[in-house]
């Protein structure tokens, strides 16, 4: 959704407030409701004390004026005014105490709302399909979450702790003006407030469009910075530091222009507000001076009006800020609620049963799938991976091999056909139970920015130290970890960038082995490993007692020669199937791929030998030269 629509009109305000109500007034949290009730009582007491303070000034001034007309004893001169001055101080302390107690009580209500809504959005983001995340910029999305969290706190504070108290105080001020003075005073204040608020709303709407552009450029700059830093190595490979800096600076230049406009618009707004209020206050004070000259008012009334208008200016100024902040908060919160409204195409039925894994077989039954309807990826794919057997998938890039693994995990839903585990349609079971029985080690493994221990234990957090170390040993990562500074407590860095590609793959394999899934999916899981380590891990996987099926997606055919069955996939369909020997004997697509890879390996080995020979010869010459010198 667009930011402009998200903050439009009072309807949007009420819509957001309705959506926020369950978070601010939560069911089952009587303690929070009591806090809200007590907060409103304290609010009323604070505002009554606020209105009483100018009266203490008035009474003290009138007492001093009367006593100053004669020459009474000092005790008579000072007893009344001093007591009233202390009354003013007591009222001010009471007002501050009530206000701070109210804010302290309401803080838990506001922060509980922030926490619960942020958690709901976070959970929903994880529930949304992979398609949603691939189409969004991570930096911009995290920015929406960050601003949304701040906006919830801002909106609850502005509405409950500033907006409502200010409206209540304005009502009290009008009552005092009508009771203490006359309708002319109330009319002047009313005109001043209406003009002040009208100007504030018009100027703020102008500022909102500027703030919207500023937020868009801020999100864009943040997304570009995160994207560039996450691809740190790629930037270095292409020497693109200056290009990235220029790209980032262009977005920051736009942010700079919009920020300057925002500051200027704020200055214009503040000056206009001050001008309107000052003119209204001066008119009111002049009317009071005229009343004093005519004997209708006292000097104390002048002090009362002055103190009351000064006190009124602060909440009135807050009303301008309240409007500005609420408008901005509506934009930010609406974007969070829009995330919650994103449909989940992989939604499960509320009463979906848990998957019951008995053997661990996997079957694709006439599966059709396309990311884009105009470009089919899988065309009626049917195969079965029996429990305890290894099924390999090979084929050219873009054939649909990795799509198969995504469908197994239900990151996407096939347009037609079924995927079954032990005869149970995975679209009809709970996602939690489905993914609990699956394990994945992929080519591009992203690790959490935490320790090696945390990343391995992510496969099964409750695993013991011995189980964790055993998984590391099976993945051939144990010796590396023991030599690394910090051992298992060593940090892997953002997305695991402190580790090499092979080290990341071994950590990923270790956490998958620790999970001990019923069905194991290996998607180019050893592509970044050297030949020796790859062979060792393959032997480990072959020796492990596997109850369920193992699916291996491979580019290097040498890694799947022992698979029970190999499927050759091209353009989303199975073109050949059989074991390694059978497929070689057929002399088809698989045999051609095998021969091509063998030729490439032999050529690479020959080239390596050619480059090593001069070095070896040079080494021999140096040895002979050294011997002759002796």
Automatic annotation (TrEMBL):
Subcellular localization, as worded in the UniProt entry: Cell membrane
Transmembrane segments: 36-57, 77-95, 158-179, 185-206, 264-287
Boundaries of every ABC transmembrane type-1 domain copy: 37-328
Keyword Transmembrane helix set for record: yes
Family: Belongs to the ABC transporter superfamily.
Chief localisation class: membrane
GO cellular component, one term: plasma membrane
Topology relative to the membrane: Multi-pass membrane protein
Segments forming domain ABC transporter: 362-596
Residue ranges, annotated region (Disordered): 602-630
GO molecular function, one term: ABC-type transporter activity
InterPro entries: AAA+_ATPase, ABC1_TM_dom, ABC1_TM_sf, ABC_transporter-like_ATP-bd, ABC_transporter-like_CS, P-loop_NTPase, Type_1_exporter
Lineage top rank: taxon: Bacteria
Protein name per the record: ATP-binding cassette, subfamily B
């Amino acid at each position: 959704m667009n930011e402009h629509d998200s903050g439009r009109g009072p309807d949007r305000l009420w819509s957001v407030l309705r959506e926020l109500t369950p978070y601010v007034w939560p069911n089952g949290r009587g303690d929070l409701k009591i806090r809200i009730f007590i907060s409103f009582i304290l609010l009323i007491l604070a505002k009554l004390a606020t209105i009483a303070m100018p009266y203490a000034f008035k009474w003290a001034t009138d007492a001093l004026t009367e006593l100053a007309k004669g020459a009474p004893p000092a005790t008579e001169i000072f007893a009344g005014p001093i007591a009233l001055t202390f009354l003013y101080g007591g009222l001010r302390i009471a007002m501050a105490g009530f206000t701070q107690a109210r804010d302290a009580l309401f803080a838990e209500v506001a922060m509980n709302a922030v926490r619960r809504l942020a958690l709901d959005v976070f959970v929903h983001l994880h529930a949304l399909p992979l398609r949603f995340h691939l189409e969004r910029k991570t930096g911009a999305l995290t920015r929406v979450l960050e601003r949304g969290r701040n906006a919830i706190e801002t909106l609850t504070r502005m509405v409950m702790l500033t907006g409502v108290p200010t409206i209540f105080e304005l009502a009290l001020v009008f009552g005092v003006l009508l009771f203490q003075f006359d309708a002319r005073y109330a009319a002047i204040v009313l005109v001043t407030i209406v003009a002040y608020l009208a100007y504030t709303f018009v100027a703020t709407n102008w500022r909102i469009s500027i703030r919207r552009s500023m937020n868009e450029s801020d999100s864009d700059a943040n997304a570009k910075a995160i994207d560039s830093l996450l691809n740190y190595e790629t930037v270095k490979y292409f020497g693109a530091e200056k290009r990235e800096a220029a790209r980032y600076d262009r977005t920051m230049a736009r942010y700079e222009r919009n920020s300057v406009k925002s500051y200027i618009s704020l200055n214009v707004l503040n000056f206009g507000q001050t001008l309107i209020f000052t003119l209204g206050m001066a008119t009111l004070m002049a009317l009071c001076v005229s009343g004093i000259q005519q004997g209708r008012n006292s000097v104390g009334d002048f002090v009362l009006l002055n103190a009351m208008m000064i006190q009124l200016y602060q909440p009135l100024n807050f009303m301008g800020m309240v409007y500005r902040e609420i408008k901005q908060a509506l934009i930010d919160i609406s974007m969070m609620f829009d995330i919650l409204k994103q449909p989940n195409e992989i939604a499960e039925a509320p009463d979906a049963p848990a998957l019951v894994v008995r053997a661990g077989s996997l079957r694709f039954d006439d599966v059709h799938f396309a990311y884009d309807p105009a470009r089919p990826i899988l065309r009626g794919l049917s195969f079965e991976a029996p429990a305890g057997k290894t099924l390999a998938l090979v084929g050219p890039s873009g054939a649909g091999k990795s799509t198969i693994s995504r469908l197994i995990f239900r990151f996407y839903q096939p347009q037609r056909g079924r995927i079954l585990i032990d005869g149970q349609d995975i679209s009809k079971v709970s996602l939690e139970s489905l993914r609990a029985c699956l394990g994945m080690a992929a080519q591009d493994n992203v690790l959490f920015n935490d320790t090696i221990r945390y990343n391995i234990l992510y496969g099964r957090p409750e695993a013991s130290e011995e189980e964790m170390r055993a998984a590391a040993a099976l993945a051939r990562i144990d010796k590396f970890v023991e030599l690394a500074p910090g051992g298992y407590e060593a940090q892997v860095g953002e997305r695991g960038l402190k580790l090499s590609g092979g080290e990341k793959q071994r950590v990923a394999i270790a956490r998958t082995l620790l999970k001990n899934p019923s069905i194991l999916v290996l998607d180019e899981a050893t592509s970044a490993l050297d030949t020796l380590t790859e062979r060792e891990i393959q032997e480990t996987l072959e020796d492990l007692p596997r109850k369920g099926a193992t699916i291996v997606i491979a580019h290097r055919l040498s890694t799947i020669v022992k698979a029970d069955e190999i499927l050759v996939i091209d353009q989303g369909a199975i073109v050949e199937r059989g074991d390694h020997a059978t497929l070689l004997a057929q002399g088809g697509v698989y045999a051609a791929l095998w021969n091509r890879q063998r030729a490439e390996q032999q050529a690479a080995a020959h080239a390596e030998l050619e480059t090593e020979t001069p070095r070896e010869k040079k080494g021999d010459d140096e040895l002979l030269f050294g011997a002759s010198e002796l």
